[in-house]
UniProtKB/TrEMBL annotation:
GO-annotated molecular function: class I DNA-(apurinic or apyrimidinic site) endonuclease activity; damaged DNA binding; oxidized pyrimidine nucleobase lesion DNA N-glycosylase activity; zinc ion binding
Name of the protein in question: DNA-(apurinic or apyrimidinic site) lyase
Keyword Ribosomal protein: no
Family: Belongs to the FPG family.
EC number(s) per entry: 4.2.99.18
InterPro entries, A to Z: FPG_cat (IPR012319), FPG_N (IPR035937), H2TH_FPG (IPR015886), Ribosomal_uS13-like_H2TH (IPR010979), Znf_DNA_glyclase/AP_lyase (IPR000214), Znf_FPG/IleRS (IPR010663)
Domain Formamidopyrimidine-DNA glycosylase catalytic: 2-100
Lineage of producing organism: Bacteria, Bacillati, Actinomycetota, Actinomycetes, Micrococcales
CDD domains: AcNei1_N
Cofactors named for this entry: Zn(2+)
GO BP, one annotated term: base-excision repair
Amino acid sequence: MPEGHSVHRIARQFERNIVGRTVSASSPQGRFVEGAQVIDGREALEVRAVAKQMFLRFDGDVWLRVHLGMYGAWDFSGEVVVDATIASANGRMGQTNQRGTVLDDGPIMDAAGENSLTSIGAPRRARVRMSEQTTGLEEQNEWPPPVVGAVRLRLLTETTCADLRGPTACALQTPDEVAATIAKLGPDPLVDDLAEGEEQFTATVRKKPTAIGLLLMDQSVVSGIGNVYRAELLFRARQNPHTPGRDVPEEVVRGLWRDWARLLPIGVETGQMMTMDDLDPEAYRRAMAHRDDRHWVYHREGLPCRVCGTAIVMEEAAGRKLYWCPKCQA
């Protein structure tokens, strides 16, 4: 499932390519025909990303709410502006690391096809795929591009096409409905005031009997954290995932919020969930290219902890895989 950094990256792509333009809207799949008819011919005025949901406002105060869920993804094609650069099939993009150094020799791909340029959602081969795993830029000769697969919603401007596939939610909302949806979500470090968000998060966690490992995945407690960031945040805090929230020391709870506020922008900028710190350029490039070098505990069950050497444990927690070190996080 896409985590918070992914949805913020999608929103930035909409800001660059769709907002401020009149769109033609259709539902090739046929499951959003009435909604597409309402949007068709309207100008996109604003985009918001909160938690794992995106909200796109059109003139007339019509809002589109999209939640990608486990399998959703956006495909962009045509002239796709990334970091103020027009992307072409042979375009090369700089990639910014955690220290702000531009790696200007092209995007770094890992074995799963993930890179920082176009990756947000569920993995599929496409033209410019905004999914959790990127497939890169591919040559395109036909405009508008042919519909491929089950496209729930197509938004088309004169130069850019955005195709939505497989979302959990794709619905029109009124301004009041949007406000009500957002009100149910926990604080998002890229949306809310950081100090206020810290207070809200800390107060909520400190009164809950639920395990902290579950609370971090609860979008009403904090926005945007998924399975990868949950495991990595807890390890970085050396916090046992099974400790009830109310028993986690306040300074640890506050530290979790501050660490999330630090890691989320890195994920937005790089397109990858980088959770390793203070890497030299060679180690950083290796980590960006290989997931095995990018995380402390996630997806490393049975492997030695990078700190103490104890085998990393994987267990089921509310139907999701939880990775942690039983010694460092005892």
